[in-house]
Specification:
With 261 residues, the chain is of the alpha/beta class. Helix content is 51%, strand content 15%. The chain has one domain (2-260): P-loop containing nucleotide triphosphate hydrolases (Rossmann fold). The strands form two sheets. The protein has a five-stranded mixed beta sheet, sandwiched between helices. Strands 3-2-4 form a three-stranded parallel beta sheet, covered by helices on one side. Helix 1 (10-23) packs across helix 11, helix 3 (57-71) crosses helix 5 (91-107) and helix 5 (91-107) crosses helix 6 (121-142).
Length: 261
């Protein structure tokens, strides 16, 4: 799962990871919970072993409403169905619908790689909150003797889920990613790695002006490396947008500088 502030390149990083896995012959499902993301535009093509989807809140809500009306509403009279339909217009319906769609995707990780490009931090935290609420409710119903696996438990399992925090070498994105890391840890989820994206310093510019701007990134990169991440990678700023399967494959094959603390 790629997480972070809006505009830091989560979609590109998620797509690059998915392409790298698919090129190794693994079955991969790449999906996004970000309404603003355009995975198909980033991939700009098809690749064997790679399935691409999008969890659209509106579509998920419509599907959820139709399913509830077809099941719980099947035995109701006209007035009862009208009341149920009105209840399903609540803002909570979208939250439940997106959570169910997200849970379905997470469940697929038992048999294939699932790469999730998440919505910006605030929306992701709401989704994780719903995931935690569902876990607590299932735990309450099952009691101490029950055996169950919830989406939250899959996210908390480091062997099952790798959380990648994506940021830029700038103060605000790093601070927000650090706050997100704290929130994840409170939920029992330990981030696996950080990616510093679009780094001018890693691109080793020759222009004096760009070199001066690159120096300003060092403090933030050092903060990530020394204080925040056990594992991190720095992706240099590209001369052209990494769009298309070939460009995304090159991004992980040759353009990423990685280190482990």
């Amino acid at each position: 799962m790629c997480m972070g502030k809006g505009g830091v390149g989560k979609t590109t990083v998620a797509a690059a990871i998915a392409v790298a896995l698919a090129c190794r012959g693994h079955d991969v499902h790449l999906t996004t919970t970000d309404p603003a993301a355009h995975l198909t535009d980033t991939l700009a093509g098809e690749l064997g072993h790679l399935e691409v989807s999008r969890i659209d809140p509106h579509e998920a809500s419509e599907t959820y409403r139709d399913r509830v009306l077809a099941t719980k509403g099947a035995g109701l009279d006209e007035a009862g169905r009208a009341t149920l339909a009105e209840d399903l217009l609540s803002p909570c319906t979208e939250e439940v619908a997106v959570f169910q769609a997200f849970s379905k995707v997470i469940h697929e990780s038992r048999r294939k790689f699932v790469v999730v490009d998440t919505a910006p931090t605030g929306h992701t935290l709401l989704l994780l909150d719903a995931t935690g609420s569902y876990h607590r409710e299932i735990a309450r119903q099952m009691g101490n003797g029950g055996h169950f696996t919830t989406p939250l438990m899959r996210l908390q399992d480091p062997a099952q889920t790798k959380i990648v925090l994506v940021t830029l070498a700038e103060t605000t994105p790093v601070l927000e990613a650090a706050g997100l890391q704290d929130d994840l840890r409170r939920a029992g989820i330990e981030p696996w790695a950080w990616v510093v994206n679009n780094s001018l310093a890693a691109a080793t510019p020759t222009s004096l002006l760009l070199r001066q701007r690159a120096v300003a990134e060092f403090e933030q990169i050092d903060t990530v490396r020394g204080e925040l991440a056990d594992r991190f990678a720095v992706i240099p700023l590209q001369s052209t947008e990494p769009v298309g399967v070939e460009a995304l494959r090159d991004l992980t094959a040759t353009q990423v500088v990685s280190s482990t603390v």
